[in-house]
Amino acid sequence: MELLNFLIKEKHLKTPKIIEAFSKVKREDFIPEGFQHLAQYNQPVPIGKGQTISQPQVVAFMLEELMPRPGEKILDIGAGSGWTTALLAQIVSQKKGGKVIALELLPEIAEFGKKNIQKYDFKVVDFLCLNAVEGYEKEAPYDKILVSASIKKIPQKWKEQLKVGGRIVASVESSILVIEKEKEKFKEKEYFGFSFVPFKS
Fold first, then answer.
1. Among the options 54, 81, 93, 171, which is catalytic?
2. pLDDT, tens digit (0-9, with 9 covering 90-100), for 96-123
3. Cα dihedral sign, 23-27-29-33
4. Which position among 86, 113, 163, 189 has the lowest Cβ density within 10 Å, counted as fewest Cβ atoms?
5. What are the pLDDT digits (tens) for 142-183?
6. Any catalytic annotation for residue 54?
7. Cβ distance 59 to 86 under 8 Å?
């Protein structure tokens, strides 16, 4: 609980549903053996193949900007360990229709993420091993899209697969970009000074 209390005290976590998800989904369940003692530290942790489970403060920031709600369908790109997938699943599963589609390119990491998700009784997660550069048309449109690996430019396909009124929160190089889809245009806001593993395609 130390980490959760820190995130709340420093106002990285503000929304009750997101705070509840951080409380119920244990970060140590998504960290490889031998590194689980680092679960309560506010830092990224390696999960193999050059990938990491993201820094809790950054995940909190991204979820607060994403604004996930019960009953929404969310695409989680670069799902990795499955931690963000589980946090999102905890929130969206509280209302009928909620679903999380998790995409991870690297087979070993995807398998790790799937096993971690199975520690919880979520019925709303599809964890897929595939290239996310085209998004996932089969389940589109999405209320929200979360991207946890650094990309140089947001693919047009992701924007097309987003509902009007929806939003994308993505790591773009060393920034976090928040994109809101309006009827005729996209509204963007950029937050600087972040670091992520690169997006692979």
1. 54
2. 999 999 999 999 999 999 999 999 999 9
3. negative
4. 189
5. 999 999 888 888 999 999 999 999 999 999 888 899 999 998
6. yes
7. no
